[in-house]
Amino acid sequence: MESQQYFGYGVTGAGLPYSSSYPSVPSIPNRLFGSLKFDRGNSPSSPFYTQFDCDTYTATLSDSQECYSSTDNLSGVSPSRNSSLESNSYFNRPSPSVDCRLESLQLFSGGTSSLEDASSSQNMKHALQELETALMGPDDDEDLNTSNASLGESSRPQTSDQKHTAWRQGSHFRKYPNTHVIQNQTSFVSKQRQLGEAAHVEKRQKSMEEAPLHGIPPGDLKQLLITCAKALAENNVSAFDKLTEKARSVVSISGEPIQRLGAYLIEGLVARKESSGANIYRTLKCREPEGKDLLSYMHILYEICPYLKFGYMAANGAIAEACKNEDRIHIIDFQIAQGTQWMTLLQALAARPSGAPHVRITGIDDPVSKYARGDGLEAVARRLSAISEKFNIPVEFHGVPFFAPDVTKEMLDVRPGEALAVNFPLQLHHTPDESVDVNNPRDGLLRMIKSFNPKVVTLVEQESNTNTTPFVTRFVETLNYYLAMFESIDVTLARDRKERISVEQHCLARDMVNVIACEGKERVERHELFRKWKSRFMMAGFQQYPLSTYVNSVIKTLLRTYSEHYTLVEKDGAMLLGWKDRNLISASAWH
Q1: What is the pLDDT of residues 370-381, one digit of tens each?
Q2: Which of 36-45, 123-132, 249-258 has the lowest average pLDDT?
Q3: What residue spans define the domains of the chain?
Q4: pLDDT level of residue 332 (50, 70, 90 thresholds)
Q5: What are the pLDDT digits (tens) for 447-482?
Q6: Which of 24, 158, 543, 550 is the most interior residue, by most CB within 10 Å?
Q7: What are phi and psi of 4, to 5 degrees?
């Protein structure tokens, strides 16, 4: 039988213009990637550019005139003067001249007991006359010259007014010999006070700048990264620059898992500071790399880690179980990607003793994902056509090149008499919820699907809480989540392999940058834990559908071929795939 009898293909909106609520992809200024070249063996300025794909970036950045270095805004700490600390300590030592100064001030203000005890105004007048005689009486030249020398005055001949003033000063200083240092001492103390205050300010600034590094154990890169995020959250730019400079010196895209992860997290933090996260996210997704490179990256991730296989197997098993007796099946896939995930299901359906059913697949994928495939949804149609011919099963494909929130009922073309299965593979978290849009597109999409009365709905999602949590909490959650994933990759691919670097950069780092650097509608990576998804589905009117025990056993067998550190936990009707003690992916089914 010819393959045309088994396969049909259509695309909603093919060849027609359409609008989307999502922004178009802008060109990326060179300042974002101007300093991204680096020696892989050293700490990079930015991990988003490697020596392996230099040519890929050249064309993208050639139209920009700007040049930017991510280390230009790093500020150093001015060293403090030792003298400032010495003048501070001087102020704590008592000065003998101060007591004399206070005594003199008391005498001139009439603070002595002899003047206070005078019984009449005549006695007061007499006392003042004696004081005046003592103060203004003539002195010999020797005393006068000595007095002038002590004040640093010139010895040249003086006028009568100057002499008169000098006599008064000389008499006073002879009568009160300790007071000759008061003027100099006052000036010295004033200068020392100014130096002390300046030293205090400088010491405080240095302490504030160095404070973020205090309490961070040497070699604790994880704590250093968290402290960077806290400094940014507090808008402490100088501390953030100092911390990121320290972090850049110890991260490496070919180092240990925490070092590789740290390289991308630092770039995410800097992008948040520079408000460039959305551009980086779109660029890495849509333009870099082009052609079939991203295909190979995703395929490598599929092979080296069981995360994608786990999601596909769980979804296929639930759909096969729910539709095992159906003759006409309609699958709506909200992220069709390459379409290869349906190969095993179609093969199993074709082998049914009762005969192969008619299968219609509606593949939804945002219009920019054609860069990841190297082609539009036509490439998926060709792939499914080959599968249809190979297994002798009639397959009809309908492409819908729209973002999930823009999909309408009419686009899905749900028909009576078909068993409907809907698949959300690591995609539903991209649809905004009530925290972003008052219309709550996420729950609205679930209610629309519920109105079709589907036979089964499968959900695969990252087990992470980054949707509505505060920034620092979100950063720590992202760090812990992807650290476990980087560790799992580490046991499969060598650290200096180009393929590993490409997988981490293009398949994982892009999402991390969006989680860390973006807010509002620009932050599309909004993961939720399974318990939150469960609440959403139940509020939309769904009930949990039991997962296939046979598929569960197959997945457990699969995990043993990768590493003993992978875990599979069944909880609340869902399966949770994890690495060591960290759950990473959840799979569940609903009806």
Answers
A1: 655 556 788 899
A2: 36-45
A3: 3-14+304-463+527-590, 26-79+215-286+470-523, 83-188
A4: very high
A5: 999 999 999 999 999 999 999 999 999 999 999 999
A6: 158
A7: -65, -25
For residue 85, count CB atoms less than 10 angstroms from its CB and return exposed for 0-12, middle for 13-18, buried for 19 or more: middle
- Whether 425 and 37 have beta carbons less than 8 Å apart is answered as no
Closest CA to 426 of 334, 292, 328, 299: 334
536 vs 22: which has the higher pLDDT = 536
Peptide bond into 217 cis (omega under 30): no
Residue pair 486/261 in contact (Cβ under 8 Å)? The answer is yes
Taking CA atoms, 59 is separated from 289, 407, 458, 462, 540, in Å, by 11, 34, 41, 34, 47
Percent helix, strand, coil in the chain, to 5, is 55, 10, 35
∠ CA 418-573-580, nearest 5°, is 125
Closest to 346 (Cα-Cα) out of 393, 399, 397, 378: 393
> Quick check: 544 and 573 in contact, CB under 8 A?
yes
259: CB partners within 8 A, 6+ apart: 221, 250, 251, 252
pTM listed for this prediction: 0.67
Question: ∠ CA(250), CA(252), CA(254), 5° rounding?
Answer: 145
> Which of 6-15, 68-77, 275-284, 385-394 has the highest average model confidence (pLDDT)?
385-394
DSSP per-residue codes, 185-245: HHHHHHHHHHHHHHHHHHHHHHHHHHGGGTT--TT-HHHHHHHHHHHHHTT-HHHHHHHHH
> Bridge partners of 579?
566, 582
CA-based end-to-end distance of the chain: 36
Q: Which CATH architecture has domain 3-14+304-463+527-590?
A: 3-Layer(aba) Sandwich (3.40)
- How high is the pLDDT of residue 117? 46
Tokens in use for 560? Answer: 């043993």
Q: Which string of DSSP letters, residue by residue, matches 505-540?
A: IIIIIHHHHHHHH--GGG-------HHHHHHHHHHT
Which residues is 421 bridged to in the sheet? 331, 456
Residue 133 makes CB contacts below 8 A (sequence gap 6+) with: none
State how far the Cα of 162 lies from the Cα of 144, in Å rounded to an integer.
Answer: 11
Tokens read off for 241: 């620059």
